[in-house]
């Protein structure tokens, strides 16, 4: 129960932060990404603040033996930059640039009843399901051909 309350509290705080930063407004996000057009640099302060907070917090948090409400840290198992990572990042970036939403702000916006977020949400869910299907097929093919994932 403690873990659920911690997750709920962190999610609520994150949502409030996204709303205060105006990341739930796709025009603000698109304005930030439109460096050759009607550029709006205000989200740069959000990016800098988040990066600095994370850098400081990770330094102290990872010194602990384990998280406060979990048995172990959930950290990436690899630091390898591979094709799926690059394609996923590119797809995410293109979608974010076109729609002005990424998952966090889209959920906050949908929860607030913002019409564009409500339209984006089914597209985001569909994209996640398509990814699951494609990833399952890709992983099944690599196992059936004997190609290890580290070599593909």
Describe the fold and architecture.
This protein has 152 residues and is mainly α. Helices cover 68% and strands 0% of the residues. The chain has one domain (2-144). The chain contains six helices and no strands. Helix 1 (2-20) crosses helix 5. It is globular.
Give me some keywords for this one.
6 helices, mainly alpha, single chain, 152 residues
Chain-averaged pLDDT: 85
Measured distance between first and last alpha carbons: 41 Å
- Count the helices. How many? 6
Strand content: under 5%
Low-confidence regions: 143-152
Fraction of helical residues: 55-70%
Category from helices, strands and their pairing: mainly alpha
- What is the alpha-carbon Rg in Å? 19 Å
Instruction: Give the quaternary arrangement of the chains.
Output: single chain
DSSP E strands, number:
0
User: In this structure, how is the largest beta sheet organized?
Assistant: none
Count of domains: 1
What is the N-to-C succession of helices and strands?
Answer: HHHHHH
Molecular shape: globular
Quick summary of this structure?
The protein is mostly helical and 152 residues long. The chain contains 6 helices and no strands.
SSE topology sketch:
Blueprint lengths: L1 H19 L5 H8 L8 H20 L21 H17 L3 H9 L3 H30 L8
């Amino acid at each position: 129960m403690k873990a659920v309350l911690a997750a709920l509290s962190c999610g609520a705080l994150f949502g409030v932060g996204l709303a205060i930063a105006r990341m739930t407004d796709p025009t603000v996000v698109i304005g930030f990404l439109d460096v050759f057009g009607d550029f709006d640099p205000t989200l740069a302060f959000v990016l800098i603040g988040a990066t600095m907070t994370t850098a400081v917090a990770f330094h102290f948090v990872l010194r602990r033996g384990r998280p406060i409400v979990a048995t172990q840290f959930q950290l990436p198992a690899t630091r390898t930059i591979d094709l799926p990572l690059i394609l996923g990042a590119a797809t995410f970036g293109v979608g974010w640039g076109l729609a002005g939403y990424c998952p966090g702000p889209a959920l906050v916006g949908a929860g607030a009843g913002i019409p564009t977020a409500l339209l984006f949400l089914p597209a985001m869910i569909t994209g996640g399901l398509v990814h699951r299907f494609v990833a399952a097929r890709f992983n099944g093919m690599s196992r059936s051909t004997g190609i290890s994932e580290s070599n593909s």
